[in-house]
């Protein structure tokens, strides 16, 4: 009897323990917002923010983030990301290649526009959004994570989307640019991994306060030509990522996400019902283009 009672108490304590959740891209924008939202819910989460270098870690610690909640790992380093995910039971993928103006050296001016060229000086989408996300998914599976959430992007059904043209190099078409295609390849890899997943395709990200707008869901970029705005505050995307871990309705779902304008509709608060308008529909990965590795 005493053994049964002790086992019950241990099981209850384990169930009540905060979930240890890894967040990659925790030194960036959307990933950091999701990381901080979980830090503010210590009764429910014990988040581990994963940043790519010591400088990013020090910046978070200087801003009040506990050092024990930050780990350093480059997502393109498979062994490093495996070690960083040790002990975590879920993963939020907030890492992504970042477009920026290339440094002013030879060949950076676009002759067609006379403006500086844009590219990915800190890592190509092929490296970060495909190989890096594949590393994370593989590591999550090895570490026993039960749920992986990806923050991706709308537009993946259109191979000619303007985002795919950023950083593209006709001399190296395989590994330069095409960010939405490499993201889509990683999404399909996650779906086929057997892990529980949630894939969120937000519209254009804006730096506005979250919790003030009604959120709208869809699939296959249909909302791109719909009414109203196709943007969404980063903070609302971060909250949706966290809520995906809390509600059964988000398990094994892939969907698009935008917000109405502030004042148009009621701010979303019932996330358990957010996906109800989809009626079980999910994004169709036969659409668009998924490149060969």
UniProtKB/TrEMBL annotation:
InterPro entries: NAD(P)-bd_dom, NAD(P)-bd_dom_sf, SARED1-like. It comes from the Eukaryota. Residues 25-247 form the NAD(P)-binding domain. Pfam families: NAD_binding_10. Residues 1-15 form the signal peptide. One of its GO terms (molecular function) is oxidoreductase activity. Keywords: Signal. This is NAD(P)-binding domain-containing protein.
């Amino acid at each position: 009897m005493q053994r049964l009672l002790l086992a019950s108490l241990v099981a209850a304590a384990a169930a009540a323990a905060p979930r240890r959740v890894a967040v990659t891209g925790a030194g960036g924008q959307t990933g950091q917002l999701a990381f901080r939202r979980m830090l503010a819910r210590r009764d429910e989460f014990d988040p581990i923010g994963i940043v790519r270098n010591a400088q990013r870690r020090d910046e978070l610690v200087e801003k009040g983030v506990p050092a024990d909640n930050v780990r350093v790992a480059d997502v393109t380093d498979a062994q490093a990301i495996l070690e960083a995910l040790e002990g975590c039971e879920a993963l939020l993928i907030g890492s992504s290649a970042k477009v920026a103006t290339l440094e002013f050296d030879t060949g950076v001016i676009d002759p067609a526009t006379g403006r500086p060229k844009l590219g990915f000086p800190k890592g190509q989408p092929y490296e970060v959004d495909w190989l890096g996300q594949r590393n994370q998914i593989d590591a999550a599976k090895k570490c026993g994570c039960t749920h992986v959430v990806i923050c991706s992007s709308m537009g993946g059904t259109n191979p000619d989307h303007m985002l795919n043209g950023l950083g593209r190099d006709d001399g190296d078409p395989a590994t330069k640019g095409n960010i939405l295609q490499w993201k889509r390849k990683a999404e399909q890899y996650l779906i086929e991994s057997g892990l529980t997943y949630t894939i969120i395709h937000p519209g254009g990200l804006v730096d506005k306060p979250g919790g003030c707008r009604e959120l709208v869901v869809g699939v296959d970029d249909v909302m791109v030509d719909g009414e109203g705005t196709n943007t969404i505050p980063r903070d609302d995307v971060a909250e949706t990522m966290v809520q995906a871990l809390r509600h059964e309705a988000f398990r094994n779902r892939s969907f698009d996400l935008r917000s109405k304008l502030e004042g148009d509709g009621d701010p979303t608060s019932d996330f358990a019902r957010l996906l109800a308008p989809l009626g079980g529909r999910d994004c169709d990965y036969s659409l668009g283009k998924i490149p060969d590795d």
